[in-house]
Amino acid sequence: MFELSFTARTVLAGATLLGIVGGALGSFALLRRQSLLGDALAHAALPGVCLGYFLTGSKSPLPLFLGALAAGIVGSLTILAIVRYTRLKEDTAIGIVLSVFFGVGIVLLTHIQKLPSGNQSGLDKFLFGQAATLMPRDVNAMAVLGGVVLVLVLLFFKELRVLAFDPDFGASLGFPMRRLEVFLTTLLVTVVVVGLQTVGVVLIVATLITPAAAARQWTERLGVMVLLSAAIGGFSGAAGAVISAGWARLPTGPVIVLVASAILLVSLLFAPQRGLLWAWLRERAVARRIRRENLLKDLYRWGEQAGDRWQEPVSPPLVMGFRGQTRNQLAGVARRLDRQGLVHWDDAGIRLTGEGLERARSIVRKHRLWELYLTRRLDLREDHVHRDAEAMEHALSDANADRLDALLGYPEADPHGRVIPRPATTSPRVA
Prior knowledge:
Layout: H1 6-31, H2 37-56, H3 61-85, H4 90-114, H5 125-128, H6 136-155, H7 157-165, H8 167-172, H9 177-216, H10 222-246, H11 252-270, H12 276-305, H13 316-323, H14 327-339, E1 343-346, E2 349-352, H15 354-377, H16 386-392, H17 398-407
Antiparallel strand pairs: 1-2
Helix pairs in contact: 1-6, 1-9, 1-10, 2-3, 2-4, 2-9, 3-4, 3-9, 6-9, 9-10, 9-11, 10-11, 12-14, 12-15, 15-16, 15-17
C-alpha cells in the first residue's frame, strides 16, 4: 500500500479545495449560460501574473495572485461594459477579452523569458498548471479565499438564484441585478485565480463547468445541484491528485479534468431524468406502446367497416397491409397484446377481446375528437388533420379526452362522418 508524500498530500488538499469551490460556483455560471466566462477570465488573468512579476521581481504567490486577480477583474468588467454599452452579444465580448488579454499575456511572458532571470520565473506553469509546485502556504491561501467564496455564496444564495434564473424578475423585485452580476463575476475571478497554479489557464474552465454539468443531470433543484457539483469537483480533485501521485510524470491538472469528464459522461448516460440511456429506453417504450395502440385501432376500424364485427379474426396478411408491417413486426406486437389479454392470436388470425375492444374504442375516440377539434377550432381542412390526430391520440389522457368531448358538445361524428365511439362509462350530457 503506497503512502502519499508530503508534497502529494499538499497537492491533494489544494486540488480538493479547488474542486469544491469551483464546482459550487460553476453551477451559477452554467445556469447563466456563461460556461466560457471562466475560460475568458483565466486567459485575462495571465497578463496580471506577468505584471505582478514585473512590478515585484518576485515569483512568490501573493504578488502573482494579486496581479491575476486585478487583471481578471478588469477583464470581467470589460466584458460587462462591452455587453452593456455596445450592440455586441456576450459571447462576442467573451471572445474579444479572451483573445486580447491572452495575447498580451503571451507577449509579456515571452519578454520575461528573455530576461536574465526569466527562465527561472516559473510563470509558464500558469499556462498548463503545475500542481506539484503547490506549497502549504499556497494551500492555506486557497483555503482562505475558497472559504470566503463559499460563505458569500451561502449568504447571497437567494439573490444568486434569482440572478441565475430570471434577472428581469429580480430587478422588478428591487434586487440590484447589475451589482449582483459584478459580484458573481468577481467570485468567479477569485476561483479562477485560486486554480491557475493547479490546473492552469487552459484547463481552469473544466474545473468550473464539468462538475456543474454533471450535477445538473441528476437534479432539478439549485441547492442540491450546488452541493452535488461541489462534491463531484472535490472528488475529481482528490482522485486526480491521488492518481497523479501514483504514476510518475502524470500531470495532476489534466488528470483532474479527465476524472471530472468521466463522471460527466456517466451522468449524461445514466442519470434517471436526463440520462441518454434512460431517454432511449423511454423512447423505445413509447414507440412500442404506439405500435400496440395502432394495431388495436386498425382492428377496430376493420371491424367497423365490416359491419361492427370487431371480434372476428383478421388474417395476418391483411393486418400487415394496414401499415406495411413485416410478419415479424406484427408478431412481436400481437404477442404482447395477447399476453395482456387485449387480442387473441391463433391460426385463424387476430381478433379483439372484450377488454381490447374497449381500449381500441378509446383510441379511435381520441383520434376522431381531435380531428373534429382541429377542423372546428383551427379551421383546418378535413384532409389536413389526420396526421396530427395520429400523434395526439397517443398523448391524450382519458380525462383530457372527456374534457375535449364536452368542449365540442359531445359530437356524434368526426369531420369525415364517421361515428365517434362513446366510452364505456359516459357522464350524462348537460342539456
